[in-house]
């Protein structure tokens, strides 16, 4: 598990990334984390909840942030930074070099263009 403490909604929370985060995100959204859509606010909220809850479950604590906190009290800049943090933790978890995920997406796009 990779973790990082952040402040969101005026509260200090720990974000985590591990398989539990991926499973929780899929359970919340029905979408695998590889298909995360940054333009979808519901997915952003559930990604953060999955990350927070994964840490809390692993450490037998209760989350101090709920979905309503994120939807009504978080500033947009806080949410953006928190989502970025989760994906940075994901890179660390999978030991991905910087930019590798972007390369995979570019190769996929090029393959789709060739097949069109």
What does this structure look like?
This protein has 116 residues and is α+β, with helices and mostly antiparallel strands. The chain has one domain (2-115). It contains five helices and two strands. The chain has helices spanning 19-29, 41-58, 67-72, 76-94, 100-115, and strands spanning 2-8, 11-17. Strand 1 and strand 2 form a beta hairpin. The N and C termini lie far apart (40 Å).
Based on the model shown, name its key terms.
116 residues; alpha+beta
Q: Note poorly predicted spans.
A: none
Shape: globular
The number of strands is 2
CA radius of gyration: 15 Å
The secondary-structure class comes to: alpha+beta
The run of helices and strands is EEHHHHH
Strand order of the largest sheet: 1-2
Level of helix content?
Answer: 55-70%
Count of the separate structural domains: 1
Mean pLDDT value: 88
Helix run count = 5
Question: What topology emerges from the helices and strands here?
Answer:
Elements: E1 2-8, E2 11-17, H1 19-29, H2 41-58, H3 67-72, H4 76-94, H5 100-115
Antiparallel strand pairs: 1-2
Helix pairs in contact: 1-2, 2-4
Question: What's a quick, concise take on this entry?
Answer:
The protein has 116 residues and is an alpha+beta fold.
């Amino acid at each position: 598990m990779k973790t990082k403490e952040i402040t969101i909604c005026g509260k200090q929370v720990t974000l985590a990334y591990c398989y539990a985060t991926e499973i929780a995100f899929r359970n919340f959204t029905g979408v695998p984390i590889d298909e995360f859509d940054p333009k979808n606010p519901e997915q952003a909220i559930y990604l953060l909840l999955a990350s927070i809850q994964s840490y809390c479950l692993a450490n037998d604590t209760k989350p101090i942030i709920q979905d309503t906190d994120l939807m009504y009290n978080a500033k947009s800049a806080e949410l953006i930074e928190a989502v970025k943090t989760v994906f940075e933790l994901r890179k660390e978890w999978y030991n991905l070099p910087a930019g590798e995920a972007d390369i995979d997406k570019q190769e996929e796009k090029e393959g789709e263009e060739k097949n069109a």
